[in-house]
Amino acid sequence: MPQVNDDAGRRLVLVGGVAVYQGTDEATTAVVAHQLLTSLAVIAGTSAVLRDRWQDISDDDRENMFRKLEICAVEAAQRLKDLARGCPTRV
User: Fold this and answer.
1) Which strands, in side-by-side order, build the sheet including 11-15?
2) What whole-number distance in Å separates Cα of residue 70 and Cα of residue 73?
3) Percentage of the chain with pLDDT > 90?
4) How does DSSP classify residue 64?
């Protein structure tokens, strides 16, 4: 696995093109990557449905779909922030 040092001199390991701090095991990284991909799939799918079927969707359903989009985006952003800081993430 290629290794690099960040600006603070901490050792980063590149796992599947993602830089994680040394000590984060590959299984944890794989789980986090899967969680990110799930969130992104929900965001992509839901936004496509909203775009393609806007007039067929009730106002209440649209509101629920936008809420789900926001939740998935916030969760994905938090996982990325945790990985970037070298903090443990929820798995």
Assistant:
1) 3-5, 11-15, 18-21
2) 5
3) 44
4) H
- For residue 1, the model assigns a pLDDT of 45
Confidence (pTM): 0.66
**Residue linked to tokens 């996982």:** 79
Share above pLDDT 70 across residues of the chain, in percent, rounded to a whole number: 65
Give strand pairing partners of 14: 19
Distance between the two ends of the chain, CA-based, in angstroms?
22
What string of DSSP letters covers 27-56? HHHHHHHHHHHHHHHHHHHHHHHHHHHGGG
Q: What is the largest CA-CA distance in the chain?
A: 54
Q: Among residues 39, 46, 44, which one has the least CA distance to residue 78?
A: 39
CB atoms within 10 A of CB 24: 19
**pLDDT by residue (tens digit) across 41-76?**
999 999 999 999 999 999 999 999 999 999 999 999
